[in-house]
Amino acid sequence: MTVGIWNLKFGIYIIGIYIIMRVFKFGGASVKDAAGIKNVYDVLQKVGYEDVLLVVSAMGKTTNALELVIKNYFDKSPELNSSVQEVKKYHNQIIMDLFEDEKNQVFVAVNLLFADLEYFLAHNKSPNYNFVYDQIVSFGELISTTILSHFMNFMGIKTQWLDVRNFIKTDANYRDAEVNWELTQKNISKNVKRKTLNITQGFLGSDENNFTTTLGREGSDYTAAIFAYCLNAESVTIWKDVPGVMNADPRYFEKARLLNQISYREAIELAFYGATVIHPKTLQPLQKKEIPLYVKSFINPLLKGTSVSRGADLEPYLPCFIVKRNQLLISLSSIDFSFIMEENISEIFALFHQFKLKVNLIQNSAISFSVCVEDKFGNFKELNTLLSKKFKVEYNENVTLYTIRHFDENAAKTVEHNKIVLLKQLSRETMQVITKE
Ligand code: ADP
Ligand code: ASP
Ligand code: MG
Predict the structure, then answer these.
(1) What is the pLDDT of residue 10?
(2) 6 φ/ψ angles, rounded to the nearest 5 degrees
(3) What is the pLDDT of residues 289-305, one digit of tens each?
(4) Which residue of 63, 299, 312, 344 shows the fewest CB atoms closer than 10 Å?
(5) Interval 37-56: pLDDT, tens
(6) Which residues pair with 24 in a beta bridge?
(7) CATH class (in words) of the domain with range 320-436
């Protein structure tokens, strides 16, 4: 969109020099096969692609498949080569379904990327798991955007393929890198061309030595928000396999209903508690500049979906359910019946942070302290050894954490039905229940 602006110094109204971009994000589910990629083309035809930046994730479950490659690499498994071939086969099939002409440059471009991956596997000397993880897993997005960009060109839409690592600069905290906003802002302001369909990778960045970093699993929504923030974009649309943000994950709740509009605050709360339809880091940058976020269906792109904006009332007003499975409920109590006080609590939290356990609920009493955590990186065993030196540690594995925003009696009954409730916590707006099935 082109807008006019007032030049205050000279009192002139200047028309048509400032192009406001829209940022679209297409996730793994939307580009999982040739039909999906053709559908992206159809969506763009319907909603327009002028002044658009597309952020694209790896195709389907490619990131998981590359995680297997990483595991095989570190285990020195004989399956290493076959796991790489699986990823290759999957993408080759998609390319063959998309392009009739085997001379299309896409074949060369994708083969080159696989050659780079194989070169890395053969020559890497770094024993740093997280570093190696990012160097390997990033091929998912590099390959998907290469295929998508060639396909758009093939269909007559001119694109500009951007290597996101030249734009998003981060620290060297591999697998969970922190954005350097100042450098990122500079790169994006200077080098993103407007008036073109730009295509770039979600999830990736690079550190000061230009090594690839990643922003955390499912981080492509966040990439879209970073670009939108730095471009002062008109809006961000994340295209999903659901009609929008619903009052529950429709995979688990048959009667889930679409929320037409929600506030940033509500979206942050829902994402924070684990509504995986939006990555939790996505909202803050957008909220700061009041850039609206639309969550829409890539199957029905002309439907309204959900609009996330400032101060929007939850509409319709419904209890919202969030389920987090595979949680750990840990209870710590003092060995000598002394109180668990601020200094213990801060020490415990420092350890959770150090071992990268994400805390999803906290409850304390005089001599005990319970937390529900997610052990994404498998560090609990090691942490438990440390904690056990100072505290009596009890824990339940594999528990489920239900969160209900705007709960009512019926909603509470639904989640507790036929389950053993291990812990329950209520605040004004939110109820959390930990259950064992
Ligand atoms: P992407 O393809 O962008 O990675 P995701 O798979 O991460 O998309 O997000 C879409 C999925 O989020 C849906 O398929 C749905 O199962 C899940 N989901 C979880 N909570 C909600 C919710 N409240 N509303 C809609 N979808 C939800
Ligand atoms: N491909 C990455 C993942 O699966 C990032 C994303 O899809 O958002 O985690
Ligand atoms: Mg995803």
Answers:
(1) 60
(2) -85, 130
(3) 999 999 999 999 999 99
(4) 299
(5) 999 999 999 999 999 999 99
(6) 54, 237
(7) alpha beta
407 is in an annotated binding site: no
Task: Count CA within 13 A, CB hemisphere, residue 136.
Answer: 31
How distant, in Å, are the alpha carbons of 237, 256, 273, 329 from that of 322?
22, 11, 7, 17
| Separation of CA 220 and ligand 2 centre (Å) | 6
Displacement of CA 102 from its chain's centroid (Å): 34
Q: Say which ligand is closest to the CA of 31.
A: 1
Ligand nearest to the CA of 202: 2
Which residue type does 350 have?
A
Q: Which of the listed residues 56, 57, 61, 240 should we mutate to test ligand 1's pocket, taking the one with most ligand atoms within 8 A of CB?
A: 240
Higher per-residue confidence, 9 vs 22? 22
- In angstroms, the CA 435 to CA 414 distance is 12
Quick check: CB of 240 below 6 Å from ligand 1?
yes
Give the CA diameter of the chain: 76
Q: Please give the Cα distance from 141 to 14 (Å, whole number).
A: 39
Query: 227, exposed or middle or buried, with CB in 10 Å at 0-12, 13-18, 19+?
Result: buried
Number of alpha helices (DSSP H) and beta strands (DSSP E) in the chain: 13, 18
- Digit-coded pLDDT (tens) for 252-310: 898 999 999 999 999 999 999 999 999 999 999 999 999 999 999 999 999 999 999 99
Question: Architecture of domain 22-240 in CATH?
Answer: 3-Layer(aba) Sandwich (3.40)
Residue 73 in tokens? 């690499």
Q: Residue 248 above 80 pLDDT? A: yes
Start-end of CATH 3.40.1160.10 domains in the chain: 22-240
143-181 per-position pLDDT tens digit:
999 999 999 999 999 999 999 999 999 999 999 999 999
**pTM confidence score:** 0.91
CATH 3.30.2130.10 domain locations along the chain:
320-436
